Amino acid sequence: MRLIIIGAVAAGTSAAAKARRNDENADIIIYDKDSFISYSGCGMPYYIGGEVENAEKLTPRDPAFFKSKYNVDIFIRHEVLSIDHKNKSLKIKNLSTGDILQDHYDKLIIATGASAVIPPVKGAEHKNVFKLRNIGDMKQIKAYINEYTPKSAVIIGTGFIGLEVCENLKELGIDVTLVERLPQVTPGLDGDIAVYLEEHLEKNGVKLFKDISVVEIKENKIILEDGREVDADFVLLSTGVRPNTELAVKAGIELGVTGAIKVNEKMMTNVKDIYSCGDCSEQYHVVTGKPVYRPMGSTANKTGRITGDVVTGGNLSFRGILGTGIFKVFGMTVALTGLSEREAKKEGYHVVAYHNIKPNKPEYMGGKEMVIKGIADKDTGKLLGAQIVGFEGVDKRIDVFVTAISYKAQVEDLFHLDLAYAPPFSTTKDPVMYTGMILDNAIHSDRKLISSEELKELIKSEKNYQLIDARAVSQYEQDHIETAVNVPHAKLRDSLDKFDKEAITVTYCNKGVTGNAAQNILLNHGFKEVYNLSGGHKNYIKTMKTL
C-alpha cells in the first residue's frame, strides 16, 4: 500500500507514526509546504517571551528523524496543488526548485491544518502587524521585537494564544492592550466567569477594550471604530483560525456545516480512500452529538492516530470532543469543557448552573480560591459542562469533569467519586464533589439556585419577593445587595415570623454555603419558594460588571 499524507504537523505525523506501527510494509510519504514539521505550536508564545530559550526545543523532529525511526519519507517545501481522486494521483510543486511532480496513492490523508483569520482591517499589511500560527510567524515576531524593541502592543482578539502572548509581552516590559469585538474576553467562557479573567488582566496592567472593533492599523497606533486611538508599536492578530479546505474542495470533497472537511467516525471523507484529520476536519460534540469545529493540538494528535490506524486496518473510531481547553495568564489558570450555559440554553436544555467558590486545598496548607461553574440539565440530571478560574489545581479538576461528562455522569455521581485526599492536595470534600452536591440538591431536593442575572431581574420586577442577607452584620454594613434585609444565619430561626412564607425568598452569603444553610432553615419551616444565590455576594458583585 502507498499511503500519502498531506501535512506534517500534529495530525499528519501522528497518522504516519501509527500507520507504520501497524504496517511495516506500507510506503508512507508526507508532503508539507512549510519548512518546519511536527512542531509544538502551543509553545510558541513562551519562546517569544523568553521562557523557552531555544526555538529548536519546539521543533525537535525533522524529516531525517521520521525516516530513521519510522521509515517515513517527508518532503518539506512541497505543496500539493491538486488531487485527482479518479486516478488517485497528486500534482505537487517543489517550492525550492519550482519543479512540478506527480505522485499516486492507494490511500490519502488530508491533514492540511488551519490558517489564521486576517480581519478586513485597513493597514493589516504593515510590517509591525503579525499573526502567530507557525514557527515562521514566531521567528518573525521574535526578530521584530529584538530589532525594534516596541514599547506598546495591541492584540486584536482574546483567544487562548492571544492571552498567552499578552502575558509574555508583558514579561518583556511591553505595554499591552487587548481589543475584543465581543462584550467579553475569551468567547468560549460564559460572561460571569470571563469577568474574573478580565479583572485579573487589568490588575496585571493590561488595558481592555471590549465590544468594539479596530478599523485601522497605523505604524504606531490603532484606530477604534469610535475614533479612539491606542498606541501600538506592535500588533498581533489573534482573531481565530479557519480550516484549510481549498485543496479538498477542488477535489470534490464535501465540507460539513462548520466549513471544515466532513468526516465520519472513521475519519473518512465522502470520497473513497481519502481521509482527513486535524485542524482541517470537522469534529462532533460528545454532549450534543452535533458537528463542531474546535481546532486543538490534542485533538489533532488524537484524530491523526485514529486515521493512521484506520487506513492500516485498525478498528479505532473517533468518539467526539468536549471542546476542552486550558491556559495560563499571569499565574491564573482558566479551563473549560463541555457546553457553556449559553450554549446549553441554545441547545434547548433546561439548565441549572452553580458557581462554587472553594480553595483547592485547606487554607492552612496555602490553598487558593478557585471558582467552578458547573452546568447541568435539570430534566436528566446530566452534567453538561464546567468552567474554572483559579491559581492552583485547576487542571486536575477540569480533567475530572471531562471524564465525568465523557461517561455521561449524573451530577450526583460527582459526590460519590473516590477522589484522592490529603491536605497538601485537596479539601476533604473536593471542590468537584461540592459542585456535584449543590447541583444534585438543586435538581432533586428543591434547593433552588438563582443566578445574579435572574436576581437582578427579580429585583426590577413587581413580584412579591424578599431578599435575606445571612452574613454577619459587619459584612452587610460594608456592602450588600439592594433591598436585602440582614438576618445573620445564627439568628434566622428566631426571626422567621418577620417573613412571608408565600413570597419568593432569596438567601445569600459571601460565597453560597451559609446561604444554602439559611435556605434549608426556611424550607424546613414551610417557606414555599426559596432560592440560594449562586456564588453568593462575591459572585454577584463580580458579575454585575457584565449585566
Portion in beta strands: 25-35%
The pLDDT mean sits at 96
Radius of gyration: 27 Å
Give, in spatial order, the strands making up the sheet with the most strands.
3-2-1-7-18
Number of separate helices: 16
Biggest beta sheet attributes = 5 strands, parallel
- Counted beta strands: 30
- The secondary structure category is alpha/beta
The span between the termini is 60 Å
Write down the overall geometry.
globular
- What is the helical fraction, as a range of percent? 25-40%
Uncertain ranges: none
Compose a concise summary of this entry.
Helices cover 29% and strands 26% of the residues. It has 16 helices and 30 strands.
Topology:
Elements: E1 2-6, H1 10-22, E2 27-32, H2 44-48, H3 63-70, E3 73-76, E4 78-84, E5 89-94, E6 100-104, E7 107-110, E8 114-116, E9 129-131, H4 135-148, E10 152-156, H5 160-171, E11 175-180, H6 191-203, E12 207-210, E13 214-217, E14 221-224, E15 229-231, E16 234-237, E17 241-243, H7 246-250, E18 274-276, E19 283-284, E20 291-292, H8 297-310, E21 325-329, E22 332-338, H9 341-346, E23 351-359, E24 369-377, E25 383-390, H10 394-406, H11 411-415, H12 431-444, E26 448-450, H13 452-460, E27 465-469, H14 473-478, E28 485-486, E29 504-508, H15 513-524, E30 529-533, H16 536-543
Parallel strand pairs: 1-2, 1-7, 2-3, 7-18, 9-16, 10-11, 10-16, 11-12, 26-30, 27-28, 27-29, 29-30
Antiparallel strand pairs: 4-5, 5-6, 8-17, 13-14, 14-15, 19-20, 21-22, 22-25, 23-24, 24-25
Give an overview of the whole structure.
The protein is of the alpha/beta class. The strands form eight sheets. It has a five-stranded parallel beta sheet. It has a five-stranded parallel beta sheet with strand order 9-16-10-11-12, covered by helices on one side. Strand 1, helix 1 and strand 2 (27-32) form a beta-alpha-beta unit. Helix 1 (10-22) runs parallel beside helix 8 (297-310). It is globular. The mean pLDDT is 96.
